[in-house]
Specification:
The complex is a heterodimer of chains A (314) and B (271).
Chain A lengths: L3 H10 L7 H38 L21 H6 L3 H32 L7 H9 L6 H11 L5 H8 L14 H13 L1 H12 L3 H9 L4 H12 L1 H16 L3 H7 L10 H11 L2 H29 L1
Helix pairs in contact in A: 4-8, 4-9, 4-12, 4-14, 6-13, 8-13, 9-12, 10-11, 12-15, 14-15
Chain B lengths: L2 H28 L3 H4 L14 H8 L3 H32 L5 H11 L4 H14 L6 H5 L6 H12 L3 H9 L4 H12 L1 H17 L2 H6 L8 H10 L6 H21 L1 H11 L3
Classes of the chains: A mainly alpha (314), B mainly alpha (271).
Chain lengths: 314, 271
């Protein structure tokens, strides 16, 4: 019944109807659009974009806490902060610690998330919702609140060591042992975050057609073979998303050392973010900004690398 | 049930138990006297349960006020994000204007900038504006976020143009179209955005920690963080009760809106 309507509508469908008001109409439209964006632009510009540029410029000046009210008295120091950073053993230690956290934490989080997602997707009906909600719960909790409990769990005679003792293992003084503090924080971070990749993997798994896996099983493939040669390859885009998200998040490793160890013991859990925050606390705003830009570079680089690798494999 | 299935359920249940154990410890500990919490060997169930810890939080500590502060900050940020992001999202999705590409590119870039990068200049800026130790100082930097605009723009883009054209032919202007056509259709992304913003603000602690300098502006996480490093640091019962106070509201909200929570965070990958 409407076969004619679209044809009729064509002449009026294009945005400019007549020639003369065209530019005036466009100016008007731009004005209206900017009005819609105005509150966002003002707030985003002031509290989002401007600080990014000003921290970049701070990173090449000798600004300290004393210069807050007299921004014109600061001097340009070029890349001095950046060279100083890479000669500072504390920063190098922080970079190594961050790498440690990322290299161990990301695969661990992904494996746990994928394992639970696969288990939840393997055809169970009963209590599936309960499991999903329960496993996801740590994601919504405040790190400050959770730290109260985890500090206690990691006490030399706390719950974790009690469990280990049952298996005959004498557990370490987790948070006060330079070798064990980082693994302890990694475990806590994995606990807090695996729910996010879990639900992303679940969504990815649900989009894989079940008959594809069934066909493979009919052809005599084992569950593991079907998983490796069908599920995993089809899950590659999802895995990329998860890997990029986790890299961006984990490279900023900060909250766990802040609330659990204050970067200690002996600097063993000081991350780049934590180092930057410490420099801010000392009033060395220039150094703090430079350290944070090293982090920006690392995040950009790692994300780019992952896109390359996955595209090459795909 | 087949044995394999039993095994699967067993493993899932065991994992769930381990995941939820810290919560159980927190809840049970909050109603124990401190003596019982530090007892060795540790006991799970309280022998003489008490609400003394919570009473002390309310009477000796100002937790009722911190609770109000947290709520005010989180709710204001939610309202700001909903309104301003949907307005800007509409412009980015449906209007043509000079500077649009550049602006949106900026929004996308800001999505991956780590918080620590803007932290120092933001602190300098807010201090210079005279807003440290004020509600405005707590709220203004989080009233909009690039993620919100991105979310809204993606959703509004999929609303058919024909709907807008029909309203335009009826003589509706952009403001009317936005309020009468766009907003009513945007419930799903608005719900996602509200949840993400509330969650982020309720749990936010680093910014309020440096901005709120006197007790009357503390939010719950700030109070708990300062409390646990202070003289009360060994008063485990009180600390656990404080932790329960911080976690319970958000967990209840999560249980009530679990589908939206999980979908929202799965879709954006952020919290």
């Amino acid at each position: 019944m409407t076969t004619l309507a679209p044809a009729k509508a064509v002449p009026t469908a294009g945005p400019p109807r007549t020639e003369p008001p065209r530019s005036r109409g466009r100016a008007r439209r731009t004005l209206i659009a900017w009005a819609f964006c105005a509150p966002f632009i003002v707030l985003f510009g002031t509290f989002g974009v401007e600080p990014v540029f000003s921290s970049l410029s701070m990173s090449v000046t000798d600004i300290t806490a004393r210069d807050i009210r007299t921004p014109f008295s600061v001097d340009f120091v070029g890349l001095a902060h950046y060279t100083a950073l890479f000669q500072d053993p504390t920063f190098l230690r922080a970079a190594v610690n961050t790498l440690y956290f990322v290299v161990v934490g990301i695969p661990l989080t992904m494996i746990i998330a994928l394992t639970i997602a696969v288990a939840l997707n393997s055809g169970i009906r009963r209590a599936k919702g309960l499991f999903r909600v329960g496993y996801f719960a740590p994601v919504v909790t405040s790190v400050v609140a959770v730290a109260v409990v985890w500090r206690y769990l990691y006490e030399p005679d706390g719950m974790i060591n009690s469990v280990l003792a049952v298996a005959g293992i004498h557990g370490p003084d987790w948070l006060n042992d330079p070798n064990w503090a980082m693994p302890a924080l990694i475990l806590m971070a994995v606990w807090r975050h695996f729910g996010i990749p879990m639900v992303i993997f679940l969504a990815g798994l649900q989009s894989i057609p079940a008959d594809l896996l069934e066909a493979a099983r009919v052809d005599g493939a084992t569950r593991w073979q079907a998983f490796r040669s069908i599920t995993l390859p089809l899950l590659r885009p999802t895995t990329l998303v998860v890997a990029v998200l986790l890299s961006i998040g984990y490279l900023q490793f900060f909250e766990e050392p802040f609330v659990m160890t204050s970067g200690g013991p002996l600097g063993s859990t000081t991350s780049i973010s934590y180092y930057a925050y410490e420099q801010f606390g000392f009033g060395n705003y220039g150094m703090a900004s430079a350290a944070s830009y090293v982090l920006v570079a690392a995040i950009a680089l790692l994300s780019l690398l992952q896109f390359r690798i996955f595209r090459a494999k795909a | 049930m087949r044995p394999a299935r039993v095994l699967l359920y067993g493993a899932l249940a065991l994992g769930l138990l381990a995941t939820l154990a810290p919560f159980a410890w927190m809840l049970l500990g909050s109603v124990k006297p401190t003596g019982e919490i530090v007892a060795n060997p540790s006991v799970w169930l309280p022998r003489s349960p008490t609400i003394g810890n919570f009473e002390q939080l309310l009477s000796k500590q100002n937790f009722a006020l911190y609770f109000v502060n947290s709520t005010v900050v989180a709710v204001t940020c939610v309202l700001g994000n909903l309104l301003f992001s949907s307005m800007a999202g509409y412009a980015f999705a449906k209007l043509e204007f000079a500077g649009k590409k550049l602006l949106f590119g900026l929004v996308l870039t800001m999505l991956i900038i780590p918080g620590v990068t803007t932290f120092v200049p933001l602190f300098v800026l807010v201090s210079n504006m005279g807003l440290s130790n004020s509600y405005l100082g707590l709220i203004l930097p989080f009233l909009v976020a690039p993620l919100g605009v991105f979310l809204m723009r993606q959703f509004i883009r999929d609303i058919p143009d024909s709907l807008l054209e029909a309203a335009r032919l009826d003589g509706a202007g952009d403001a009317r179209i936005f309020l009468r056509v766009i907003v009513p259709l945007c419930r799903p992304p608005l719900a996602t955005l509200a949840i993400l913003t509330f969650l982020g603000q309720w749990n936010n602690f680093l910014w309020p920690l440096v901005i709120a300098q006197t007790e009357d502006h503390y939010t719950l996480p700030v109070a708990l963080a300062l409390f646990s490093v202070g003289a009360n640091g060994t008063n485990y019962g009180l600390l656990l009760a404080g932790a329960v106070t911080v976690v319970t509201p958000i967990v209840l909200l999560f249980l009530a809106l679990q589908r939206q929570f999980i979908q929202g965070i799965a879709n954006t990958g952020l919290k």
